Structure prediction request, 529 residues.
Amino acid sequence: MRKFLKEKQFIEIWGDVVESRHLLISMIITTVTTFSLFSFAPKGDRPMGLLLGLTGAVIGFLISVFLIKPKRHLIVEDK
Amino acid sequence: MDTILIIQMLAAILIAAAIYIFIGFIPGTDETSVLLPVTLVIVLAQVQPMVVLAFFISAIVTLNFTNAMPTALAGLPGGVLSSPMIENAIHLKNQGMAAMTIKKMAAGGLISVAISVPLSLLLANLLAPYATSITPYARYLFIGGAIFLSLTSKARTLSLLSILPLAILFQSLRHLYWGIGLIPTNVNITTSFFLAITIGPLVHSLFSLLNKNAYSQMQVSDYKTIKLNKHDEKIKTLNPFKILTKKELQSASLSALITNFLFVLSPVGLIILIGELVAKRSKDVTESAQISIVAKAAMAQSTYLSQIIIPLLALGIPLSPVAIGPGSALFNAPPILTLENNLHHILSSSHFVIVVIFAAVIASAITYTFISRFANSFTNFILKRIPHEAVLGLFVAFILLLAYMDAGLINIFGVLLIALISGTLNKLGVNYGVQFMSLYAAPFLVQYLL
Prediction:
């Protein structure tokens, strides 16, 4: 776990490459934004809770997109 | 139907197309996880049933078109249904034919929509008179479905053996929540359990990261290298009959036709099975890969369309993998929709038919044109800008939210338990179909065991 957090380590998960620390950061950011917005919904108002929660998830997603660089080398071939 | 309703439906179709064009291009976005929560929001917000249906049909048509794009262009699966296409896609890409492949896949999809919409509406109409005699046996159909899907899967014995333990797992959590008074006994938690199954393989992989041996196996030394073919403008036409060869056209049409009749079977299973069969129509490796990938793209559309249209129009009970999974909010989203009062009961057949055709035609036209024009540049943009980490983070947040909303903090761990078990079973070969059917059959199965 300590190694996991300190070093730059690439892992292949679900067909694509991620960096373990970045994955952790993205999961934390998106979960925090999701539940922060969700907490504004009146208790028992399910549609509003879901709507706010999903909006929070999208915001977290956008923050992650902004902060994290994709781990892909793109090569355009001329065939 | 008044003008305001038509405008609302049109808006729903356009919004769905816009959202799912974007999502479809992102690799690894699982269909159920991206369709179910959004549909659920719309249903629970008490949007008009016709508008909900228009949104959903537009969403699945768009998603199945666009999921093929990262598959063909980057060799990364757009969704679950694109994983069987990867091998063909990579072969064709290595031949420098990616740009051609996307046009062919889109053309195959378009032909399939044109066949599947009328055919599944017709099949639903033929099946509808028997609905009242079928519905009381729904519980046996779910049990039978779980057994049938087990028998047709690769891990036959393992799948059969996992049905009862899975049923007990689901029921034990439900009884726990009822027992401690967390939720009323007339409420059956399903949404978060569905998503737990869907996200199982991902949770399994994430937990494997915490195991040293598994971690080192998943470790790679560098970024993923993705080769993209330079955009070639050889095919300018949008006419699918000119884009596809005769063999491709036949295979796509025939696959779409057959899968409509087999609407109770798992889409991935059908795509693998029939995709391999049609590949045998040519001895040439490249031609065979093309025929196969076009048929698979066609079946992505035909399975989703028939599996939502037939059960919804004819029966009102979710009797297909799509109806049970991604489309379940149209059948059961308490308190708005229940198995006794859902879109099937609320909408008249004529309204249903009009909405489905309206949505399918508009969504296909938009997405098909978009793909033909922008597939290359948009894929490039997504691969450069959207990190895989953000996609995985989004899924994790989705599932945590839905788990919490269903039954509070304890259910986050309940869902984790289900995800770990179904993820493990999934890696061993027990497919989603068997697991979803077991979830639906769980209450009855446990009763029989007493």
Remarks:
- Chain B touches chain A through 53 residues (CB under 8 Å).
- Chain B has a mean pLDDT of 90.
- Chain B is about 75% helix and 0% strand.
